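for the writeup, i need someone to sanity check this before i put it in the appendix. the sequnce is what the collaborator sent (i think, or maybe the updated version? ugh). structure was predicted straight from it, no edits. if anything looks off just tell me and ill rerun, i have time this weekend
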Amino acid sequence: MLEIGAMDLGLLLSESEVAGEMALALISAPKIARFINRSPKQGAALRQRIARWGEQLGDEIRHKPVPPALEREYLAYQECRAMALGTLVTRLPALQLELERGSAFAGEAHALIRQLLEQPTDSRRRLLLERWRASLVGELLTLQQAIAEAEREKLRCEIEDQLLANRTLADALDPHQVSAGGLWDLAQGHWHRRSLELVKQYARLLEKEPLLREIANLLGRSQHAKEREQSPLPPQEVRELQPVQSDEVPDDLVGLHPAGDLLRMLPSEAAMLGDADLEFEFYRRYLERRLLSYQSRGTLPRHAVVLQTPRQGGEQEQRRGPFIVCIDTSGSMGGYPEECAKALFLALLGLAMEERRPCYLMLFSTEVATLEITAETGLEQAERFLSMSFHGGTDLVPCLERALTQLDVPEFRRADVLIISDFIAQNLPHALLARMDAQRRLQTRFHAVALSRHAKRALLRVFDRSWLLDCGLRGRLLRRWLH
C-alpha cells in the first residue's frame, strides 16, 4: 500500500508545510491564544508542545496510506511520465477511460488529451503531465489537510480541557495568584469533571480551615524564599540576546520547500521559462510562492527586555526536596478529618508541582499503599485518592518504615515527610526513632498534622514540627465562633 510520504517524494512535496500551518492555526485558536498572551511562561511551554506536535504530525501524515483510487491514478501518472511520446499517444484513449472513473482531473484531461492526439508534440505532452501533476498535488494536499485538521481538532479539545482544569486548579489552590505557574503542569493530566468538582469542594474547605493552607505554605517554601519575602528587592529590566531561528539566514541548507525566492529556486523551475507553453505556469507559481526552492535556516540574535529580581547577598535559593505525604486512611479518620486530609494533600500537590518537587503519597491503616504523583503519570492516582473512602485501623510503624526506606532512593533524599493522622495509635519503637534521627542528620524533617484533639501528645513530640486541628464538632464550632 502506497504511503503519503512516498507519493510526496514522487511529486516533490513536503507534508511538513501542512503540519506547520496546523500548528499555527492551533496557536491562533481563541482560548489558546488568550492563555498564551495572559501567561507568558506557560504560553511558551505550550508553544513548544504544539511545535513538537507539529513535527510529530508531519511524521504521522507521511505514513498514512493513500486511498486506493488516488494510488492507482498516481501510479498511472508515473507510468505515463516515463513513456516516450509515441507510446503515450497510443495509451491516451485507455487513459481517458481510467480517469473518467473518478479522477478530479478527468474534465481537464479530456481537452488536453484531444489536443495531444490532434498535434502530438513534446510541449503538449509536458503540458498534459504538468497539469496532471498539479491535479494530483491538489488531491494529495486535500487529503493531508483533512488528516491534519482532524488531529488539530483532537489536540485543541485536549488543550482546552486542560485550560479548564488549569483555571479550576488555579482558582482553588492559588486564589491570590501567588504561584509562578506550576499549576499548568498539574492541569496537564486527565482530570475528569467530577474530580474538578471535588477540587472545588476541597478548595472551599481550605478557605474554611486557613490552618491547612498555612501548613502547606510553610512546608512548601525554602528558607531563602522566606528571607526574600521579608525584604524583597524590586525587579530590574535587563536586556538579553536571545537566539531566534529564521529562514532568512543562509547558514545551513535544510531541504526543499515551495517559495517565491528567485535566487534560491531550483534550475528545473527556471527551465519552464524556455517553453512558451509552460511560461505562464512559471509566473503563476511564482505569484503563488510555490516555486520549488532550496530552504536554508540560521540563527539571528535579537534583544529582549526581561525583568529579573536581584539576588540577595549573591546567594542562590536552596531548592527543597520532594514531599513524602503519609495519610491515615483508618475508619477513625472518616468524615470531616478525611475531607481535611484530602484538602491538605491537594494544597501540597499544587506546591509540589509549582516547585517541581516529586510527591510520593503513602496511604496507611493496618497496611501501606504507595502512589508516586507526577504531572505525566500520577494524576489519575491522585484523582482516585480524592474520591476514595477511609476504613480500617491505624498502625504508624509500617508507614514510617516505608517512608524511611523511600528516603534511601536518590530522588527522595532530603524529602519533607508529613504524617496526616488522628494519632490515636501506639508509641513508636526505639529502633524506628533512631532511624528517624539518622535521617535528620541528613537534613530530612518530619512533620505531623493531628486531626483530632484526642491525639497522643507523646507521639506528636517525636516530630520536628506538629500542628493540631480539632476536627470534632466542638473544635469546628469553636473556630467558627472565634473567626
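The chain has three domains: 1-175, 241-305, 323-482. The two ends are 73 Å apart (CA to CA).
thx in advance!!
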